[in-house]
Amino acid sequence: MNYLSEKAKINIEWNKRVWGDRDKWLDREYGYNWSRESERPQNYSDAKKIVETHLFPLIKKEEMDILELCPGAGRVTVELVSRARNLILVDMNPVCIEICKDRFKYYDHISYHVNDGVSLDMIEPESLDLIFSYDSFVHIDKEIVEQYVSQFRNKLRDGGIAWIHHSAVGERKIGSRSNMTAQLMKDFAQKHGLLVIAQFYSYLIRKPTMHYADVFTVLEKLSEETAKFSSLSADQLE
């Protein structure tokens, strides 16, 4: 991680400290109590609503090879596991991976990895149909988000997509939301050979507030030729 700025390294350490507490995850019902009261697991969770309404309609395959980035305690993993041929969970917090291993111990098509908060080196090239992350990238610094996005194209198969829930507050200091924006994600996608096929604010699902200015961005892998053309600047195209 020597190539990261000090600001980005501090962000990684903050996320390790905040989300690396096993008791906090258990006290928060594996993260489900971040849903509204009417959307708890016994009724209809926000995670279930999101994947059924805003992910699965975009999927072209019945079974997929899926990477879930930063799964936390598996709040959305429970919705993805039945649609996965192979499901890979990657989180920088060993506690999160340990909790998920325990929750999903009866599934034999899930693999688990602890990373450094940036790297996807454990994933084989062109081995994924879907990269997914919900309620985690909202806390990740824009520099680290780009590092992840820069690896997506190499890991996805042709036609594969990345579905990422991220902050859109910019440089303003709002709660624990990071300095990402919707436009930045578009810029990262163009730079790294991905096409933005959908982008929408989370108030389509939750009531908008200043503290939750989040965006869902869906990226698709471009062909080699299209990606090369897309990455050219306006001056180069003249």
UniProtKB/TrEMBL annotation:
Residues 66-160 form the Methyltransferase domain. It comes from the Bacteria. InterPro entries: Methyltransf_25, SAM-dependent_MTases_sf. It catalyses: phosphoethanolamine + S-adenosyl-L-methionine = N-methylethanolamine phosphate + S-adenosyl-L-homocysteine + H(+). Keywords: Methyltransferase, Transferase. GO terms for biological process: methylation. SUPFAM superfamilies: S-adenosyl-L-methionine-dependent methyltransferases (SSF53335). Pathway: Lipid metabolism; Phospholipid metabolism. GO terms for molecular function: phosphoethanolamine N-methyltransferase activity. This is Methyltransferase domain-containing protein. It comes from Desulfobacula phenolica.
